[in-house]
Amino acid sequence: MSQAARPVVRPEEVSSVLKGGAKAPAAAGPTPYSLREPLAIPPDAEPLARRQMEALAAVTQEALLKDLGEGATVELEGFRQQRAGAVLAALPAPAWVLPFSGGPGGGMALALHPGVGLALVELAMGGAGEVGETARPPTSLESRVMGRLVRSLAPPLGRALGATLEPVAVTSGELPESVAAAGETLGVGLLKITMAKGSGAALLLASAGLLPPKARPLAAASTAKPGRVGPLAARLDQVRLEARPVLEAGRVSLSDIAALKPGAVLRLEQPEDALLDLRVEGQRIFSGRIVRQAGGTAFSVTWRRGRSGPGRGE
Q: In whole angstroms, what is the distance from residue 196 CA to residue 31 CA?
């Protein structure tokens, strides 16, 4: 490239598009430039991280029932990764933050819509627990009530994460450094908390050091009937494995990616009968092809790991 050449798109223009035109908050000191938000949890570990968040949501629901004596449903509606400095923007300000310190592995927090926080306080004090749109910080009395909930949540959440969590003082509008630094990327569980009189949003925030691969989700009790694979069927039914179909990589130009629209099909230049790998926990176990049958489509195995036959070799 000659000295007179200039980039077609300036970095600040790319950043504006990726962030929807919003300006990133000013940070103290230099920060590395990236075309996307950094991922602290690799893509192949995200399904396990989401299941971990589902287990944490279930633990939170049980703790609310035990501490408040009132039913509250906690549902996980999504999972993503986001910088700690911007994560609370998903809730009306000032979000109520119930934080926990996890030591060197990082920390976690339950961040509440202010209306949800007020409703939980109302329930704890014998009220109806109506979720409203009021947005204000907790009073000293409300902070003490929330502090009791933090102390109740710490042990079961710690057991679910395989870590020791210590309660931290309740805050509003910001994450304490014991949970995460502003530039740190967190795993974020998007929650919906429903009570008798309304529902609202909340976030489960956890440092990547507390999530997979070090931690493992709580084993859910299986309600399925034992299969015919022998006496270990009941235990094998609880084993969580990730299975992923994989095609050989293709090539695509940057202009094709830029032209993609909702509903577009990205062609990978693979023939219809191309071999497909079926990988379990990242290991290739089967190779085969997608075939059409009377009842629909099926995966026809042409090679199986550990057995001789046609395939691509180990």
A: 45
